[in-house]
Specification:
Number of helices of chain B: 9
Number of helices of chain A: 5
Number of strands of chain A: 4
CATH topology of the largest domain in chain A: Arc Repressor Mutant, subunit A
Strand content of chain B: 5-15%
Distance between the termini of chain A: 15 Å
Shape of chain A: globular
Radius of gyration of chain B: 23 Å
Structural class of chain A: mainly alpha
Oligomer: heterodimer
Helix content of chain A: 55-70%
Distance between the termini of chain B: 29 Å
Shape of chain B: globular
Number of domains of chain A: 2
Largest sheet of chain B: 2 strands, antiparallel
Structural class of chain B: mainly alpha
CATH superfamily of the largest domain in chain A: Winged helix-like DNA-binding domain superfamily/Winged helix DNA-binding domain
CATH class of the largest domain in chain A: Mainly Alpha
Largest interface: A-B, 26 and 29 residues
CATH architecture of the largest domain in chain A: Orthogonal Bundle
Chain lengths: 129, 368
């Protein structure tokens, strides 16, 4: 699975990395138990500081998408990622709220916003941009 | 014989240096990153061709003068060896000097024509690169080292039987022409040097695991296949040379302990065979594989995306030759101008890896 990082983007690199790995999980390119590169190997391939990769891994570990195991390295959560709990759903909603609000302020209709989400889901699943 | 040998090496260096642009990735010209959309620009091609013509012409003149001098002036063996090495270095320095002029021209061209403007620089990583990477197993590099250690132990066991003067240098005819007094150090100096060299090749092969892979966003799949193959063949080349030097130096050493197995024919033919084989293998490696596997034919599946280019790393390449990037944890990196590997000199460990084996080899030779 290929990952693409834009070096001149406004999105911090550690977040770009995390988003791309999450998309890989969605598409099934990264399956439960799959190992991810070591921090050093990943940073070497990126030509970036190891700190950046560390930050990504901790971000994903906090969300319980990956496990950082002392000996075997970094793996995608072996038991698979469970459906969001009520609490996690609320958290996502809270994060989405300002974005939806901005859309509404910009005079987007409910339909247009729903269509936007549908298209995004499709693109993520198909690996399109 | 010596003239033929040195002449052959000189010719090899000249041709390799002159045609160097042909063995490199099209996206790197004279140590400068060139986006895919400009690799076929007539200016770029013209600069490469000019370089080849100039280096080849100069090299051939030097080669001709050298042959004429060596064949008609009947120089003494010492003078001949000295001049031969001098001529090789001159050819190298001239080609490097001319490379540097081209490097500056290319850099200016890229800036003035704004090749990067409006493009988005993208870094591509294959998450499974390490899993896909197939190198020669470490153990195959370690076995020859154990052979050497065995040789050292065996030497100490046979210490009393050894001659009072230990040969340390052999002339072109295979006869020893320099000796050292027998001590516990001088009897094992040769296998110790061998051990250092074996260690270097082990590190070279293993180091590729810790070297970042640069994939081209315009053809991800092809550059991935080429990268993986390049590393595999580099590892194979390192193994070939390790086995070669082990056999050669091992025989040299054993025949000091057991003069009865010594044969001046083998002493003469073995290094020559090794040298010619090494040149042949390196030649195949350069022509068939090329830098980063750029000469390997790969079917291209993914279409080129015009506005996406690789991250421009020119600022980390001093003179287009020396890589210094503190952030990148890679120690070994692929050369930009040349086939093979160089080091990330921003890390102290690179200096250690480079200097310690050299100091050890020089130290051992000096103490003899």
């Amino acid at each position: 699975m290929f990952i693409e990082i834009e070096s001149n983007s406004d999105v911090p690199i550690y977040l770009q990395l995390a988003h791309q790995l999450m998309e890989g999980i969605v598409r099934g390119e990264l399956k439960p138990g799959d190992s991810l590169p070591s921090v050093r190997a990943f940073a070497s391939d990126l030509g970036m500081n190891m700190h950046t990769v560390n930050k990504t891994y901790h971000y994903l570990e906090e969300k319980e998408f990956i496990q950082i195991v002392a000996k075997s390295g970094v793996i995608i959560r072996p038991s698979g990622i469970p459906k969001a709990t009520e609490e996690e759903k609320q958290k996502l909603e809270a994060q989405l709220r300002p974005i939806i609000t901005e859309g509404l302020v910009r005079k987007l209709s409910e339909e247009e916003l729903v269509e936007m989400v549908r298209k995004l889901v499709q693109n993520i699943e198909e690996g399109k941009e | 014989m010596i003239i033929a040998l040195f002449g052959f090496i000189l010719l090899f260096i000249t041709i390799l240096q002159a045609f160097m642009p042909k063995f490199l990735k099209p996206t790197e010209a004279f140590g400068v990153y060139i986006p895919d959309s400009h690799t076929k620009d007539s200016v770029v091609i013209k600069l490469k061709n000019t370089y080849t013509t100039v280096v080849l012409t100069f090299g051939m003149i030097i080669f001709g003068v050298y042959l004429w001098w060596a064949l008609t002036q009947n120089p003494a063996e010492e003078t001949l060896a000295l001049v031969s090495v001098g001529v090789q270095f001159t050819t190298l320095f001239v080609s490097i000097g001319y490379y540097f002029m081209m490097h500056l021209r290319m850099k200016r061209l890229k800036e003035t024509q704004g090749w990067l403007i409006g493009k988005s620089e993208v870094r591509v990583v294959d998450v499974k690169f390490q899993e896909k990477l197939k190198l020669i197993p470490r153990v195959l590099f370690i076995i020859p080292m154990f052979v050497t250690i065995g040789l050292i132990i065996y030497t100490f066991m046979k210490y009393d039987q050894m001659p009072e003067m230990i040969p340390t240098h052999w002339g072109p005819t295979g006869e020893a022409d320099a000796f050292s007094k027998k001590t516990y150090f001088s009897v094992v100096a040769l296998p110790l040097i061998l051990l250092v060299m074996q260690g270097m090749f082990l590190m070279m092969s293993e180091g590729m695991k810790f070297s970042g892979a640069r994939l081209n966003p315009a053809n991800k799949k092809a550059s991935l296949v080429q990268q993986l193959a390049f590393r595999k063949y580099t590892s194979l080349l390192a193994l070939f040379i390790t086995i070669g030097i082990t056999l050669m130096m091992g025989y040299f050493h054993l025949q000091t302990i057991h003069p009865e197995i010594s044969s001046s024919l083998i002493m003469w033919a073995l290094p020559l065979t090794f040298l010619i084989l090494t040149f042949a293998v390196v030649g195949i490696y350069v022509i068939k594989v090329g830098q980063s596997g750029s000469r390997l034919k790969v079917e291209e599946n993914s279409p080129a995306i015009e506005n996406k280019i690789a991250v421009d790393e020119d600022r980390y390449w001093k003179g287009g030759m020396f890589y210094m990037n503190k952030n990148d944890p890679s120690i070994m990196v692929e050369k930009r101008f040349g086939v093979g590997w160089t080091l990330n000199f921003a890390h102290p460990i690179s200096w250690i890896v480079l200097l310690v084996p050299l100091l050890l080899i020089f130290g051992i030779s000096f103490l003899l």
